[in-house]
Amino acid sequence: MTTANTTPAVQQMEKQETKLLDSNEYLKSGIHIGTKFKTKYMAEFIYKTRPDGLSVLNLKKIDERIAVAINLLCQYEAKDILIVSRRENGWKGLKLLHKLTGIPIIDGRYPPGILTNPNLETFTEPKLIMVSDPWPDKNIVEDAARIGIPVIALCDTNNQSNNIDLVVPCNNKGKKSVGLVFFLIAREFMVRKNLIRNADEFKHTIEEFVEE
Predict the structure, then answer these.
(1) pLDDT value at position 16?
(2) What does pTM read for this prediction?
(3) What's the structural domain count of the chain?
């Protein structure tokens, strides 16, 4: 619902149809607020630039790309996926996602060689990787590209898409935004894998996925 203080840009975004989540929930998380820097790779996802210089991402495209990412993730078994977040803003949500779905995660620094050196005890062979930001998570993105593992990445307006197979545009700096993405992945993965019957049975809130 719009208010007298809501800007025309936000009013227009609220009219965009989203499927995974009510548009107001997206807006409250700040998932659409980008940075003052924008790359040519992210131009197609940018709705407008605010007077203060911040780029605003297209809410409908955010929703569509999260849905595509979820569809791709659900084509794999949990054990064959690896989700990585070097940034601390995603750790709480990532840990809860792992607890609920069984999807392996790395919260923190990516240990070099675990994808490329079979002599390591920690060696792993995921079939799909997701990262919360391709810049701090660049080492695993580069290793995945080297050995041919597809990569999904949450990308802000200042990110480049080198070695990324699926860009999910969003505010990947905000803890509420990243937590919301992991909330949606956990909920939809559990439904599609018949861990719960429907989304109404998912009793966790977005707040539970957000860092304090």
Answers:
(1) 58
(2) 0.90
(3) 1
